[in-house]
Design brief:
The chain has 303 residues and is mainly alpha-helical. The chain has 7 helices and 4 strands, in the order H-H-H-H-H-E-E-E-E-H-H. The strands form 2 sheets. A two-stranded antiparallel sheet has the order 1-4. A two-stranded antiparallel ribbon has the order 2-3. Helix 1 runs antiparallel to helix 2 and helix 2 packs antiparallel against helix 4. It starts with a helix and ends with a helix.
Amino acid sequence: ARKAREAERVQKAREAEQARKEREEREKKEREQAELQRREVELTQLDGEIAAMQRRIESGGSSAGDSLKKLAALVESRGELAEKIAAKRRAQAAALAEQQRQRAEIERRRREELARAEAEKERLRQVQLAAAEAKRRSAVEADIADYEKIVNSSGGSSLAGAAWTGLVGKYPSAAGIEPGDLATFRQVVIEGISLAELRERERAAAAAAAAAEARRLAEMAGELVDVPGGCYRMGANDGDSDERPVHEVCVDGFAIGKYEVTQGQWQRIMGNNPSSFKKGDNYPVERVSWNDAQEYLRKLNAK
């Protein structure tokens, strides 16, 4: 804060000095402009004298003071005065350009100073925010330490509920957290993540894990399709003894491979390929017994 005040004081002093210089420059310019106007009046007068003498000489009505030498002197004086006026105007133009350059430079420096001052203010603000945040975190950790001290004491089991209520009561954002879940408490209260966002992250993580597991199983066992459960009537009243009577049978839903198990899938699960026609991993496996299939399923499920 002291540096910021010092920078502001220096900036104000510079602005005052610049205002003084501009005032002096303005007064100087006014004096020079008045001098230039005076000389322009003189030039106009000389032009008038030269023109009048020219007319008298040409008309033959010259006065006693008219002569070629006098006319030459007037022309020479006019030339010198015109050159002085032109030089003065060039000097004024150059001075104006220099003044504009200096003003642009001053403005650039002023903006740089302001930018540095703003940057310093922002840095100090960030330092203050960081200090406040560290203090807040320290206070929360102190409350957590008090809670743990209570629940870990000899009679902590009976005081755990009251200790948790007291802890959560200080931090409204922690409402809804399962008692004793300090990991979630720290994420919500210290890290500032809402409980709803944490739950959504958990759901997203679970969905991602399920999708990954599905991809892993699909890679090992192939794509599965769901077959819904249902009931049907089975048997015949006039059939063999093991077919009578017609009765209702219900089965649960299950998943079945969309395609035959390939030789590559069997090799990955069982470590062998019993097929006679070994033409590639994407061909169906064959020469597999019922018991082989059961062992395949057992190992697949164990994965």
